[in-house]
Amino acid sequence: MHLFRQQMASSMKEGIRQIDPAYPVFVDAVMDGVIQGHLYVDDETHPLVYFLEASCGIYYVAGRSEAELLRCSAFIVDVYERQKRQNGRFTLFSANSLTDAMMKKCLGSHLNEMERHAYVYSQAYSHATQPHPGYRVERTNERVMTASRAFPPNYYEAYWGETARFLSKGIGIAILNGENVVSECVSIFSSMDRAEIDIWTDESYRGKGLALLAAQHMISTCLEKKRTPHWDCDVHHLASIKLAEKLGFQRLKTYRLFYGSR
After folding, report:
1. Which candidate, 105, 39, 48, 44, places its Cα nearest to that of 74?
2. Rounded CA gap, 15 and 48, in Å?
């Protein structure tokens, strides 16, 4: 496998899009240089297989045929074994059934599996953000990070490399009751034109519409910044599915995720 050159990012994105039109936001985040990582291809001139690693231990693989994917499987197994030796994370997002088949053949006995839905926000959908008396809305800042139980500084260090990078290039909304952060919506990943949403509400404040409020503000901020909001969740997470659809997200695909135990 060959390490791709940054100046070829646009052609690489198009190649991946032809295989998987709904590929994950973190792929663009790496190729746009927003977060650290690498993209490898089987051939620099006419790539048929794309393997991307983000520095946080999240991976993505897409190929034009199962045969081509299998020819590159030894490289993927080597990456998995390296992560296992170093007690590092290995979570791989599969492009489609071809990747599923390859992963099951080469690492099926070593990895767990999960099915997830991928959604994108329909910009034809409009909503009005309703005020919530007694609560205030703030953009994520260092004070919010320090006070947060769901998205503390080490969350941003894991996914963004450092908190400063998130504060510069990410998007976050917090709902506060006094000085307590009770609901949040942040971009776990963001590229130049897309943002994937992560969301949380304190258990004692659920059922009050605060997640909806945070997400509405998040969507508005994303659109202001010309970034299309994306939403991914486990197929069994019915509350997340219901909220996504209520907000106006449309399902793009259901995909498989492979992950190792640490």
Report:
1. 105
2. 8
| Tens-place pLDDT, residues 248-261 | 999 999 999 999 98
- Rounded to two decimals, the pTM is 0.93
What phi and psi, each to the nearest 5 degrees, are found at residue 70?
-65, -30
Structure tokens at 49: 């297989």
Q: What is the mean pLDDT of residues 207-226?
A: 94
Instruction: Kindly tell me the burial class for residue 136, based on how many C-beta atoms sit within 10 Å of its own C-beta (0-12, 13-18, 19 or more).
Output: exposed
pLDDT tens digits along 75-131: 999 999 999 999 999 999 999 999 999 999 999 899 999 999 999 998 766 666 666
Cβ-Cβ contacts under 8 Å for 122 (sequence gap 6 or more): 248, 249, 250
Q: In terms of Cα–Cα distance, which of 197, 261, 229, 259 is closest to 59?
A: 259
Residue 133 confidence class, pLDDT cut points 50, 70, 90: confident
Q: How far apart are CA 257 and CA 212, in angstroms?
A: 27
What domains, with CATH codes, occur in the chain?
2-110 (3.40.630), 136-253 (3.40.630.30)
Which residues lie below 8 Å from residue 258, measured CB to CB, with a gap of 6+? 91, 92, 94, 103, 107, 111, 112, 113
Backbone angle region of 95, left / alpha / beta, with phi > 0 → left and psi within -120 to 50 → alpha: alpha
Nearest-CA neighbor of 190 among 32, 17, 29?
29
